[in-house]
């Protein structure tokens, strides 16, 4: 059974905003039925269920549109090139709010009594990179627009969290900020509206200031997620988030990333570690998908198979010299990315495997 203790109860362990032995998902799921998806998530992720995102429903259920619907006094519409800031409320904005409302209804009915629940929003830099101002340029090119979007998002997030706390009395809300475009924002590699140039790189200190402001709105149970191989882990940690979410399968033997991982774990940062593929691995089909070792290509014991799935976590942390106890205290297994493009059966299986890897890591606590 998964431990119900918080790691702060263990002498010398880092503060952690949820239970030891937890696993979770990153948000996106396949399908269009919020009630059914909530039941799956609650069954597979009892320690840290998450408010699922179902982008398969179309405009307004996508990452950018969903978060744009939270903005206060800033509206958004869909144009051929994507989402654009509008001067008045739009049909697409109402659609995004409706989708979120239905998802929250499903969450309220299914997660009642949960001690923790995790929600996800698109971060300010990715939102500014993916939304246009009325002139057609990325909001990212206008520092004033970035400030306005960030302030509006912080206000909308506070209201969103308050709504969930009202719906689920006693449940503590974990906020995940998704920043998939942040590496491109920092590197200056995003194309301009014309496609003939790139948007000027944003300075690290400027990026950190905006992220810190949203972190303050997110509260102490905050996570920032970037699954790019160039995820700026140190910058994200300096912004003060309680945990970082990244794809551990991309770490490998990259010295720079390993050094950052070691430094941050040593400082007590908790990691949501992507370890289970977000789509079914080639060659892993049918009934064998449940019990086979994907690397050895044969049926094996459950423990051996789980140890293989856990290697993206155990190998780099082992190279860095961290004990199994430290890993159990500071690492939360997840799929490598969102599961929106997975088949229905693999999305459930990926959550199950994440949970089982968490339990395997948690054996170090017994």
Notes on the protein architecture:
The protein has 366 residues and is α/β, with parallel strands linked by helices. The chain has two domains: 7-26 and 254-366, no CATH class; 45-112 and 119-226, no CATH class. Helices cover 42% and strands 14% of the residues. The chain contains 14 helices and eleven strands. The protein has helices spanning 34-44, 63-68, 91-110, 124-130, 143-167, 182-187, 204-218, 233-238, 255-266, 288-291, 302-309, 311-319, 324-330, 344-362; strands at residues 75-79, 82-86, 116-122, 131-132, 172-178, 222-225, 243-247, 270-276, 292-293, 298-299, 331-335. It has a six-stranded parallel beta sheet with strand order 3-5-6-7-8-11. Helix 1 packs across helix 3, helix 4 packs across helix 5 and helix 5 (143-167) packs parallel to helix 7. It is globular and about 55 Å long. Mean pLDDT is 91; it is low at 1-13 and 287-300.
SSE inventory with pairings:
Elements: H1 34-44, H2 63-68, E1 75-79, E2 82-86, H3 91-110, E3 116-122, H4 124-130, E4 131-132, H5 143-167, E5 172-178, H6 182-187, H7 204-218, E6 222-225, H8 233-238, E7 243-247, H9 255-266, E8 270-276, H10 288-291, E9 292-293, E10 298-299, H11 302-309, H12 311-319, H13 324-330, E11 331-335, H14 344-362
Parallel strand pairs: 2-4, 3-5, 5-6, 6-7, 7-8, 8-11
Antiparallel strand pairs: 1-2, 9-10
Helix pairs in contact: 1-3, 4-5, 5-7, 11-14
Organism: Nakamurella antarctica
Protein name: Methionine synthase
InterPro entries: UROD/MetE-like_sf (IPR038071)
């Amino acid at each position: 059974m998964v431990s119900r203790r918080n790691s702060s109860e263990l002498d010398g362990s880092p503060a952690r905003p949820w239970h030891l032995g937890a696993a979770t998902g990153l948000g996106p799921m396949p399908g269009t039925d919020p009630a059914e998806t909530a039941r799956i998530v609650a069954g597979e992720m009892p320690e840290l269920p998450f408010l699922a995102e179902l982008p398969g429903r179309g405009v307004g259920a996508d990452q950018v549109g969903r978060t744009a619907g939270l903005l206060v006094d800033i509206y958004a519409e869909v144009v051929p090139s994507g989402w654009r800031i509008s001067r008045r409320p739009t049909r697409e904005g109402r659609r995004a709010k409706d989708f979120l409302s239905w998802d929250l209804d499903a969450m309220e009915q299914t997660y009642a009594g949960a001690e923790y629940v995790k929600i996800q929003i698109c971060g300010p830099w990715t939102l500014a990179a993916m939304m246009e101002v009325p002139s057609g340029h990325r909001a990212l090119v206008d520092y004033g627009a970035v400030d306005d979007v960030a302030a509006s998002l912080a206000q909308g997030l506070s209201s969103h969290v308050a709504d969930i706390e009202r719906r689920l009395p006693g449940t503590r809300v974990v906020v995940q900020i998704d920043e998939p475009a942040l590496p491109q924002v920092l590197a200056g590699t995003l194309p301009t509206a014309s496609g003939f140039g790139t948007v000027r790189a944003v300075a690290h200190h400027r990026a950190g200031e905006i992220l810190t402001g949203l972190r303050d709105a997110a509260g102490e149970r905050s996570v920032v997620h970037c699954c790019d191989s160039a995820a700026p882990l140190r910058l994200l940690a300096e912004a003060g988030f309680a945990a970082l979410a990244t794809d551990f399968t991309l770490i490998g033997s990259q010295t720079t990333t390993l050094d950052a991982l070691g430094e941050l774990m040593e400082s007590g940062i908790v990691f949501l570690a992507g370890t289970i593929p977000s789509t079914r691995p080639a060659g892993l089909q049918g009934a064998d998908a449940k019990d086979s070792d994907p690397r050895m290509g044969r049926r094996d014991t459950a423990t051996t198979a789980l140890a293989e799935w856990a290697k993206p976590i155990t190998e780099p942390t082992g190279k860095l010299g961290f004990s199994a106890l430290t890993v159990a205290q500071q690492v939360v297994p997840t799929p490598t990315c969102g599961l929106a493009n997975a088949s229905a059966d693999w999305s459930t299986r990926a959550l199950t495997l994440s949970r089982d890897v968490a339990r395997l890591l948690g054996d170090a606590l017994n």
